């Protein structure tokens, strides 16, 4: 599994000079990482071919990816199982996990919420065990106050201050490093900043820019902005970046795909954006990595910025 100590020397085996940084470099939780990472959610698609899943993770790391987003509830533990087997301490890869939900196999929705402080702690312990480590560099609290997805109800309505107190306690104990928030609104973000935040993960894309105020606040506070659903369209009713005529036109002019333009816009839009595109396909992995080589000039950015933003707030429960 990945090292939990300081970053490797560039000259050391597996150091950051081993491959160019996809998308360039940016600060994250006291380290410097590639702006394009990898989201492990899609590893579930390779459940029937473990060798292919291991090879995909290795390919990502060997291409310069040095931060991987995961969760114990991704594939009911499958993603973490693959990461534990695929990553060695010499790779110096930052693992970012999350708590606030658990897997719900066979349910109408693949997740059930686990928002109470004791459940957050249990989630961290599950991640530590599955990953085979005693420290996770960054853990996100999936709060789900805004954006698409489930909404807390009944005993799952937990006070943010109580949740942050538990997360901070685990940080003080050395179980986790940086604390992140996911699905947070502007008021919650402002309340949480004094606790010290490494990142915010919210649904955000060219066509769903509800959280522009949060992004600007994160930039001002030195907090990484890590959008999920960066191309929209993940739930019925959500617009898709790749459907936009302006996106298609810019893509055609540059000889790349509309998906690549949607991701490239995010990198150009704000310097604190880090991407974690996920895939189970090696060719798609390379296409995501190549996004960092795309240059959008002022005319292209103006055309893309003019695309209408629609709401991503699509509750499921």
| Multimeric state | single chain
* Helix and strand run: EEEHEHEEEHEHEHEHEHHHH
Distance between the termini: 36 Å
What is the structural class? alpha/beta
Please explain how this structure is put together.
By secondary structure, this protein is of the alpha/beta class. It is 33% helix and 14% strand. It is built from 10 helices and 11 strands. It has helices at 50-62, 78-86, 117-131, 160-172, 186-192, 212-221, 245-254, 258-269, 282-290, 298-305; strands spanning 25-28, 31-34, 38-39, 67-69, 94-99, 101-103, 111-113, 136-142, 176-182, 199-201, 224-225. The protein has a 7-stranded parallel beta sheet, covered by helices on one side. Strands 1-2 form a two-stranded antiparallel sheet. The protein has a two-stranded antiparallel sheet with strand order 6-7. Helix 2 (78-86) links the parallel strand 4 and strand 5 (94-99). The longest helix has 15 residues, at 117-131. It is globular and about 50 Å long. The two termini are 36 Å apart.
